[in-house]
Amino acid sequence: MGNGMWVVAVFVSCCCLFTSLQPVISGCLLDGEEAAALHTLKASLLHSDINPPSSWVEGNDCCSWEGVGCSSNTTTTTSSSTTSTTIDTTNTSRRVVEALHLSRFAWPYTYPLKQWHLNLSVFKVFHELRHLDVSGNNFRRSLESLDITGLRKLEHLNLSYNALEEGRGIPTSSWTSLSSLRFLDLSWNRISGPFPSGKKFCIHL
Ligand SMILES: *[C@@H]1O[C@H](CO)[C@@H](O)[C@H](O)[C@H]1NC(C)=O
Ligand SMILES: *[C@@H]1O[C@H](CO)[C@@H](O)[C@H](O)[C@H]1NC(C)=O
Ligand SMILES: *[C@@H]1O[C@H](CO)[C@@H](O)[C@H](O)[C@H]1NC(C)=O
Ligand SMILES: *[C@@H]1O[C@H](CO)[C@@H](O)[C@H](O)[C@H]1NC(C)=O
User: Fold this and answer.
1) How many CA atoms lie within 13 A of 4 on its CB side?
2) Which of 53, 75, 128, 186 is the most exposed place for a label (fewest CB within 10 A)?
3) Ligand 1 site, residue 185, Cβ cutoff 6 A
4) Angle CA(204)–CA(176)–CA(151) in degrees, nearest 5?
5) In Å, what is the CA distance from 108 to each residue of 134, 136, 158, 186?
6) How far apart are CA 78 and CA 28, in angstroms?
């Protein structure tokens, strides 16, 4: 094989690697990470023998899935070159998830009890999330497995009716990064506190 062929081969294998790391989910107009997380949520519901909402169809835009609220995030970049006196601005628009209303998937709490088997670190990729309601899902996980580090815009968090155990509590790093949190509902879990101080919001226990 000549040198040229090697270059082509390396290039092709790099492309394959790149595309395999970036899941391409047809129809979903969100960035790879957020789209992949929504599909993880759906897969985990099926794995837990819970029917996802009927609108959660592969191939449809994920933002039209019931309970998923999206908004548009526009960032403006400016560039100027030394040869020109004009400044170019480019607006790039992408869609982001700002609300997840995923409540009562394990409802009603009648026997046999349903339980949503979900790795609670899935939510950390939704960086623009403002509203997260995952109440009534009977997660039965430890609160310390809830990894919501970096959700700086999160204002409303409803974790009620989930049989969450306290464990070592929400990790401090997660907790301190929730700088916009106004409302936290932790009722109907197996948690007794104490809670980190210095935060001002309503807590329902
Ligand atoms: C848009 O996204 C950027 C980068 O993630 C973020 O810093 C900014 O706050 C977002 N803007 C809005 C209006 O959400
Ligand atoms: C980018 O957005 C700003 C503010 O919304 C607007 O004034 C400007 O005209 C836009 N620029 C382009 C190139 O679309
Ligand atoms: C949950 O997912 C994270 C990666 O997102 C992984 O590091 C962790 O081990 C998982 N936890 C469990 C209990 O599977
Ligand atoms: C939290 O969720 C529970 C169960 O879905 C609901 O009854 C409660 O009203 C919610 N709390 C708030 C403040 O919305």
Assistant:
1) 0
2) 75
3) no
4) 85
5) 14, 8, 17, 18
6) 29
- Name the region of 34 (left: φ>0; alpha: ψ -120 to 50; beta: rest): alpha
- How many angstroms does the Cα of residue 100 sit away from the middle of ligand 2? 29
Number of the ligand 2 atom closest to the C-alpha atom of 91: 1
Domains and CATH numbers, the chain: 29-204 (3.80.10.10)
pTM higher than 0.85: no
Provide the greatest CA pair distance for the chain: 73
Q: Is 75 in the pocket of ligand 1 (CB under 6 A)?
A: yes
Report pLDDT digits (tens) over 52-111: 999 999 888 999 999 999 999 998 888 877 676 778 888 989 999 999 999 999 988 788
Q: Is the distance from the beta carbon of residue 187 to the nearest atom of ligand 4 less than 6 Å?
A: no
**Rounded CA separation 49/15 (Å):** 37
